[in-house]
């Protein structure tokens, strides 16, 4: 069986047709083959096909512009100057899928000389999910997303799999497995063992540096209303020991590994003086990191024990 077949058969856990909900524009950039690294604060629990779903939050024009400029710059490092970006960034839609072939730590990817420099520059989070063979749906269709990696409903899968078409990105990359017979051999620690040396530093131009800074800002800018909602949620969780008993929650909050504050946001941790924080502040930050993202309305409804509207 080829690497692209079988969907969730190569996945860990109880995943059959694993799906990940991401914010735009990151979701479409991944399905269009422009984005090759999906950054997370937790390692990839699956290998093989991963369906990509766009969350409900409409991306701001400034965010789209910043991320497109980021990819123009990192592709330019490898001599690629023509990139066809998506014309639209639809939300609340199943967009397509990619093949997750491995997962390494950021520092490992940065030192992996076997991959293009532009790919090494994409790694900006703790864990880098290595993605190949993007495919998009000819007609993205509406569905609701969930936090973390979850199983795509069978009826949705059966409809979606017939509408997939391959996508050729600007510069497709093939990530070589340390052991071709073991699909999970490309894992955190494997690159540092195989290639213990450190790759030469990438010389960054002023425009590249600015693009990276812009991408950082885009990834960490959140709506104040959403921030307040999360802060209130954390406070309620700390003061109410019964907060786990949430009626009508579809998200299984406490069964998923720690993820970014919002799904698919590719949050790049900003430099902070953690030593100057109080213990309560550190606890709040830790709690917030354990609240994987979901569309705001669904998340708020789950927290309040209500059915999403």
TrEMBL record:
Compositional bias per record (Basic and acidic residues), positions renumbered to this chain: 242-256
Domain ASCH: 20-123
Positions with biased composition (Polar residues): 267-283
Region (Disordered): 233-294
One Pfam family it belongs to: ASCH
Signal peptide feature range: none
PANTHER family registered for this protein in UniProt: EXPRESSED PROTEIN, THYROID RECEPTOR INTERACTING PROTEIN RELATED
Protein name stated in the entry: ASCH domain-containing protein
């Amino acid at each position: 069986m080829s690497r692209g077949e079988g969907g969730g058969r190569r996945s860990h856990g109880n995943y059959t047709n694993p799906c990940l909900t991401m914010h735009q524009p990151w979701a479409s950039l991944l399905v269009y083959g422009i984005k090759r690294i999906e950054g997370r604060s937790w390692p990839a629990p699956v290998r093989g096909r991963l369906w990509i779903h766009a969350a409900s939050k409409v991306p701001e024009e400034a965010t789209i512009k910043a991320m497109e400029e980021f990819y123009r710059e990192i592709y330019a490092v490898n001599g690629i100057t023509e990139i066809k970006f998506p014309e639209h960034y639809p939300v609340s839609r199943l967009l397509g899928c990619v093949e997750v072939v491995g997962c390494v730590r950021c520092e490992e990817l940065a030192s992996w000389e076997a991959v293009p420099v532009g790919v090494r520059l994409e790694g900006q989070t703790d864990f880098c999910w290595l993605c190949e063979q993007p495919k998009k749906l000819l007609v993205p269709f509406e569905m609701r997303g969930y936090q973390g990696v979850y199983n795509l409903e069978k009826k949705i899968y059966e409809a979606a799999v017939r509408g997939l078409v391959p996508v050729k990105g600007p510069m497709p990359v093939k990530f070589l497995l340390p052991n071709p017979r073991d699909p999970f051999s490309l894992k955190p620690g494997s690159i540092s063992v195989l290639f213990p040396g450190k790759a030469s530093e990438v010389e960054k131009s002023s425009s590249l540096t600015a693009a990276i800074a812009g991408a950082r800002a885009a990834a960490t800018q959140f709506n104040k209303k959403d921030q307040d909602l999360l802060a209130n949620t954390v406070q309620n969780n700390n003061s109410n020991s019964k907060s786990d008993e949430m009626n009508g929650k579809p998200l299984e909050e406490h069964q998923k590994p720690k993820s970014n504050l919002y799904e698919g946001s590719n949050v790049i941790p900003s430099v902070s003086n953690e030593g100057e924080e109080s213990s309560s502040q550190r606890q709040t930050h830790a709690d917030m990191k354990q609240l994987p993202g979901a569309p705001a309305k669904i998340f708020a409804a789950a927290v309040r024990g209500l059915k999403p509207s």
